[in-house]
């Protein structure tokens, strides 16, 4: 085989490879654009109103917790 035949064959193979990749990418772009038009975008869901916990007088609980912490620290130091 001479160099001209090899060069011609390599250019044909190059054109075939690049052409097939170009066609596949064009098809992919077309399919994605068609699907994006057919499928609607997700609408943001409005957040539910936050439920506030009932306000209670927790001063007794706070006092008990403080006493427990104080007792724990005092027993740890001894």
Low-confidence stretches: none
What share of residues is helical?
Answer: over 70%
Task: Tally the beta strands.
Answer: 0
Query: Number of DSSP helices?
Result: 2
> Secondary-structure element order, as H and E?
HH
Distance between the termini: 98 Å
> What percent of residues are in strands?
under 5%
The largest sheet is: none
Rg is 37 Å
> What would you call the shape?
elongated
- The whole-number mean of residue pLDDT values reads 88
Structural class: mainly alpha
Please give a quick description of this structure.
With 78 residues, the protein is mainly alpha-helical. It contains 2 helices and no strands.
Q: Can you tell me about this structure?
A:
The model has no long low-confidence stretch (mean pLDDT 88). By secondary structure, the chain is an all-alpha fold. The protein has a domain at 1-39. The N and C termini lie far apart (98 Å). The chain has two helices and no strands.
